[in-house]
């Protein structure tokens, strides 16, 4: 009788564990999957930047500036300025009568994600003048992905 009671208790325990195991809710989506689904496509940062060089090189400064967020800042030796002031700086320093005095290219680009929708971009620009002389410098950009496209929030070029 004692043996029968022990077997019955053991059977009940196994049955209870099986019942509880079978009735667990579905495992929630893992945090990694959720983050991956919500993370911007960082592989599009570099093509975005290379794409705007054609606007600079064709003298379409307004189209070049569309990659900048409307509230973006640009660092000058005197301090940060907005997009309107940046446009004036570019027109004065790098165009003659609306025509670019140099062609623009980027290289040494490195993208470092800063969360799900932001990136720090390090790179080098080269401006090649009509007489083939070159001016080059380094830059750091803070970019944000909004509605599937990348925009510059801050530009620190030297």
TrEMBL record:
Keywords: Signal. Gene3D superfamilies: 3.10.450.50. Residues 1-27 form the signal peptide. InterPro entries: DUF4440, NTF2-like_dom_sf. The keyword Signal applies. Transmembrane segments: none annotated. It comes from the Bacteria. Residues 54-152 form the DUF4440 domain. The keyword Transmembrane does not apply. This is YybH family protein. It comes from Pontibacter rugosus.
